[in-house]
Amino acid sequence: MYTVEYHANDDVRLVEKPVPEIGPGEVLVQLKACGICASDVMEWYMKPRAPLYPGHEPVGVIVQVGEGVDQFKPGQRVFIHHHVPCMTCHYCQRGAFSQCATFRATRLYPGGLAEYIRVPAPNVQLDVLPLPDSLSDEAATLVEPLACCVRGIDRANIRPGDSVLILGAGSNGLMLGQLAKMRGALRVMISDFIAYRREAALKAGIDVAFDPQDGSIEEQVAAVNDGLKPDVVIVTPSKISVMQQGIDLVAPGGTVLLFAPPPPADELSVKPNHLFFREITLRTSYSAGPYETRQALDLLRTGRIRSESIITHRFPLQEAPQAFHLVANPGEALKVVLHVD
Ligand SMILES: [Zn+2]
Ligand SMILES: [Zn+2]
């Protein structure tokens, strides 16, 4: 079988590996489609760990079940989550699933971008979700990234009537914006340099889209937001300068959510005095757990989040190098999905 092997953004290979063997409690899934995440082209994380077998948004069909697996059978279409928590440790009991040691240790083999994927027993037990016939393979690849957005929105402290500003109108920005509206945000604004993305955001139901080249974001926000700063700012890029901008832009009493990780050595300078007297909350959101994947699947199943508003490019698995190149240099691309026919 073929699997995608990552060495660098401009060195993504298709390599042959034996079809994985499965043990008790495990299942073997034949890949149908898998999205590529911005984190899959985050070279500071990926390159030192190469060769890597990326892909964490896979959807496929169960072709074999291990001994003791009675809740699934061959032929079922499923979403498979790459990480699952233990549900019993200190962090799991507090809902901080991505901090659980089991969460960080569980992974798909060889990765989500392989023709056949071995799903470990803990993942089979907790976060393999059968898909309704009404949901396409492609749409279901959004379960994982949408789950991360659901968690992000939960952590962003949005209250009904809030105004929300999202920096970056990529696929995550668009999903976060739609979720913010569902949570009762009165006005959802987004900012991006690329016109196509701003238009896509407006089509997805976001109220206002700003071009940073049209002048200061603060003034553009004030002009449409009753002269007020946004109550919540969500920073989707991993750039320090944009995080800094988020802290400067948020209203007193508001929350800044950092949605993507910068390299470990990067530093963000904050003035605690500025945060203190304005009661500004700085939060982060990392990955998603089994509650969020179920919410995400339900949002997609019921059409409250429509994949057509998010997925813009499709490639066969064999063209993974071109697909990774596009995600690393997205321009007008939003979500890029690889297919196996
Ligand atoms: Zn991701
Ligand atoms: Zn745990």
TrEMBL record:
Tell me which stretches of the chain form a coiled coil: none
Q: Name one GO molecular function term.
A: oxidoreductase activity
**Enoyl reductase (ER) domain: which residues?**
7-338
Q: Which UniProt keywords apply?
A: Metal-binding, Oxidoreductase, Zinc
Which Pfam family, an example, fits this chain? ADH_N
Required co-factor?
Answer: Zn(2+)
Spell out the InterPro entries in the cross-references: ADH-like_C, ADH-like_N, ADH_Zn_CS, ER, GroES-like_sf, NAD(P)-bd_dom_sf, Zn_alcohol_dh
Against SMART domains, the record matches this protein to: PKS_ER
UniProt similarity note: Belongs to the zinc-containing alcohol dehydrogenase family.
Protein name per UniProt: Sorbitol dehydrogenase
Species whose genome carries this gene:
Thermosporothrix sp. COM3
